[in-house]
Amino acid sequence: MNVLIAVLRELIGLFVDDGSLALMILAVVMLAGILATLTPDLNLVAGALLLFGCLGVLLANVARAARRW
Amino acid sequence: MTGSFAHIGPAMTTAFLASLVEAVEALTIVLAVATVRGWRPAGLGAFAGLLVLALIVVALGPLLDRVPLHLLQLAIGILLLLFGMRWLRKAILRSAGVIPLHDELTTFAAETAELREQARRNEARLDWLAALATFKAVLLEGLEVVFIVIALSAGRGMLIPASAGAVAACLLVAGVGFVVHRPLARVPENTLKFAVGVMLSAFGVFWTGEGLGVAWPGADLAIVGFAVLFLAVGFASVAFLRRPRIKALS
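^ Those are the sequences you sent over. The predicted structure of the assembly is below.
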């Protein structure tokens, strides 16, 4: 049972370490998804939002983490 | 041939490097168990872990073929973004000295100390506990390898090159570990994690975009461009985070 719990914990931990990073990534993906659905002809704009949104989220997250430690 | 390597190269290399990191971590636990209790329980636990991993792959593989491609790309892309950016974030913070580097020798010492403490408390059950420790280590680290291989290959016919990269890394680490009988503390784990985090994040953006219907310019080559951008942001973050610390130290 302990092994099963450890495996489940590890599975979640694979993707979520810092909760705010995961939430911000999901928010960027959702925004890009909405944009891609509303303007299918401008799908590259949604792609750019996805790419630069993720880069921005990473920068903001490490800066915040560094201030915290 | 050059064209085909350009096609399979990023997936194969990423799978190789990521598996190298995971295999080194699993090896440390297996060696700790073997040092305290011998190779029999260590090997049995590791073998059982590999068996469960193989069952997971066999069960999961056919299921993935039934998922519509766009949905699969989107789901795997998001998981790759979460996974890759988590690794990259940690590698940046470690490179900048914000959090300490992962040390295999410390992990090895902690694991052997824990096993010796368990031996003191309950000698009779120790072989079982030792086997369980290697089973858990191989299963948990192996799950990451399986996820990376599936994520890099799903729906793109990359299963064989990505698996070959992963298997080569595991065999290399197992071979070196078997010869030297010590944790592979000299492997530049954080540099590998940095590189793999960059590549997985780039793959994640690519797959998620494809799943959302984005037609990336340059098709697969866009992944290289994304990797360059993630690498540049990673290096800039390390330089930016290091500066105040250096000032404070001086």
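The helical segments of chain B are 2-37, 39-65, 69-95, 104-121, 126-153, 159-180, 189-211, 222-249. Residues 92 and 237 of chain B are 7 Å apart (CA to CA).

Shout if you want it in another format.
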